[in-house]
Amino acid sequence: MDYREVETTAEYVASLETGADWRAEIESLADDVEADAAWFTALGAVQDAELWFYDQDECEYYPIEFDEPLEVAGCVGNVSLLDDDRFAHTHAVLSDDEGTTYAGHLNEATVWAGEVHMRVFEEPLEREYDETTELDLWL
Amino acid sequence: MDYREVETTAEYVASLETGADWRAEIESLADDVEADAAWFTALGAVQDAELWFYDQDECEYYPIEFDEPLEVAGCVGNVSLLDDDRFAHTHAVLSDDEGTTYAGHLNEATVWAGEVHMRVFEEPLEREYDETTELDLWL
Amino acid sequence: MDYREVETTAEYVASLETGADWRAEIESLADDVEADAAWFTALGAVQDAELWFYDQDECEYYPIEFDEPLEVAGCVGNVSLLDDDRFAHTHAVLSDDEGTTYAGHLNEATVWAGEVHMRVFEEPLEREYDETTELDLWL
């Protein structure tokens, strides 16, 4: 296990714009406040969603698409630098009108309403290729 | 996307009372510490629950009721002022004895045990009617 | 409801080691930084998992085992002292290659990749036996 102590330089709450992309909105907040490392949690609802599942044998992501309104029952993630761009690694738990739940790595989703809390850290987190998992990981 | 920098004035951990209402307990904590804006995460278990699903076409909430013991696998939300009262907007992921999961906007639930972490912000968050979504949103 | 104001002494981000145990890694972080009270959120993926469901009638935990790769769509928990050892009370939401979700109290799981944010509090949290729920609770 690798770890690092972090210093929080600022924290924010944000309300995401209806019709925009959930993850792009979070990255836009990170860009606006020049956050090269941050941690966030969020909740809300989306009009559709694309989750990605990582196949640990093939070491590839596969998309799972949902074309219906869903609650964002929970969302947690972080901002780091990936190839010099700010990337919001975003996991989410979604639920439909019967309370049935779908969850995973959120690639994209159209915002209905979204409330985000973000803490920005002083020192950047940078993702690099990890040979074991074939994922881009930080630390 | 609208956002605001926030200053944390204090943070708390709380243990919710068995038999009380999950959301009312969080609002009671907010009242006790005079939090007009806060962010929380939580975990625990409940004896029953009522989730609300927001129908984005009808712009109305519909209840989904569960009359059985459930784990609170995760819970995230925030405190703001709604019509001058403190309101804990609470989303939760619940699970039963087979690990099957239900999730969404938590209206009420009877606490079995609950552990909460809350950060209180200096400046109030106030909910106002949003014409696009017909929800009460802040910022 | 019992609550306590807490002072954060430090905060950390951690990357969990592939092949190690998810909860043991979090407890190892707590040991390394001498955290007798902390709050964390996390995300990632695991190679297998054992969830525990608490039967509120029998007041006993029952295991639910998963022998397949799963995303950790969300994870929230806290560190406290239980019989003088640091214990990471860990809840998680897991999902498979169809987005189907399983959730609850996470006893153990083999890390594929894991990203954790932990806030360490100054004053220890100590778990003691609670007669009503037969759980070890703090405060």
UniProtKB/TrEMBL annotation, chains A, B, C:
Domain of life of the organism encoding this protein = Archaea
Listed Pfam families: PCC
Q: Where is the PPC domain?
A: 6-139
Among InterPro entries, the record links this protein to:
DNA_bp_PD1, PPC_dom
Cross-referenced PROSITE patterns: PPC (PS51742)
Name the record gives this protein:
PPC domain-containing protein
